Amino acid sequence: MNARAEVGIFTGHLDNVICASFSADGKYLATTSKDTTMIVWDVMTTKRMLTLKHAKVVICCRFSPDSKYLVSGCQDRICRLWDTSRGREWISYSQHKGIIISLAFSPCGKYVCSSSSDKTLRVWSATSAKTRFTLLGHRGIILSCSYSSDGRYIISNDEASLRVWLAKNGCSVLKLSPTDIAGNVTFIPNPLKRGNDNMNNSHASSKLTWTLSCGAPGGFTDYCIAACSNRFVYIIDIQTGNEVVSTYVRAPVYCLTVGSNAYAACGDAFGNIYMLQIE
């Protein structure tokens, strides 16, 4: 396999790019920005296909499984569902009381799960924008939400807790704090720093937190992936709540995504990208 560091540059945003999401067919890329727009690009040509304007900063976006729709989450507390063929807003969802942090489509495409700074997850219809149920229990800003690949579970996390819910009714089936998995491993010396630099860095790492989480890729439907501030990424068995395997990275992880097969990728605060394979 040959890999090139750069295959195209997408230019058009006027401020920081916050989020990027590929369509399921790989033909399109959606990006959100502080410039209050979401842009849809043709991946092969890097041409701008659509520019979708919002009232405020656009935090997150996700394509539907059939790539026909695109949902965006905005700083104005509104989720918007867009028809990608027409470039028009289809429906909007405005039940959150805080900014939208993360979005996920159910694998069947019928529902959207949204997380917010209001500490709630809401599952709503992608056709009527009616709330199916609200998931309560997080005590902090919910940093991520995702579905398992078979659609049975919703995985979410704030800094203090990782939670797994039944997607059919919103019942909580698992709650884990970072110490439940990591124990007292609160600091791993930074391999790129020495001496006093490591001592100074240990203070910032003294409290364990979850940074991101997601469902495991492919057929590993009973697993989820969670990144911790101690620089470990854990694969966790949803049924038992136990660690299956973990891997060490050089800095806290702030980007985590999974492929359709057995691979997951994460990016750390030092700019490193790691490809993980689940076997």
Write the layout of secondary structure elements.
Layout: E1 17-22, E2 28-33, E3 37-42, E4 48-53, E5 58-63, E6 69-74, E7 79-83, E8 88-93, E9 100-105, E10 111-116, E11 121-125, E12 131-135, E13 144-147, E14 153-157, E15 162-166, E16 172-176, H1 178-182, H2 196-204, E17 210-215, E18 223-228, E19 232-237, E20 243-248, E21 253-258, E22 263-268, E23 273-277
Antiparallel strand pairs: 1-2, 2-3, 3-4, 5-6, 6-7, 7-8, 9-10, 10-11, 11-12, 13-14, 14-15, 15-16, 17-18, 18-19, 19-20, 21-22, 22-23
CATH topology of the largest domain: Methylamine Dehydrogenase, Chain H
Could you state the order of secondary-structure elements as H and E? EEEEEEEEEEEEEEEEHHEEEEEEE
The number of helical segments is 2
Classification by helices and strands: mainly beta
Global geometry: globular
State the end-to-end distance.
21 Å
Strand order in the sheet with the most strands = 1-2-3-4
- Report the strand count: 23
Low-confidence runs of at least 5 consecutive residues: 186-205
CATH superfamily of the largest domain: YVTN repeat-like/Quinoprotein amine dehydrogenase
Strand content: over 45%
Q: What's the CATH class label of the largest domain?
A: Mainly Beta
What value does the Rg take, in angstroms?
A: 19 Å
Largest sheet: 4 strands, antiparallel
In CATH, the architecture of the largest domain is: 7 Propeller
**Proportion of residues in helical segments:** under 10%
Structurally, how many domains make up the residues? 2
Mean pLDDT: 89
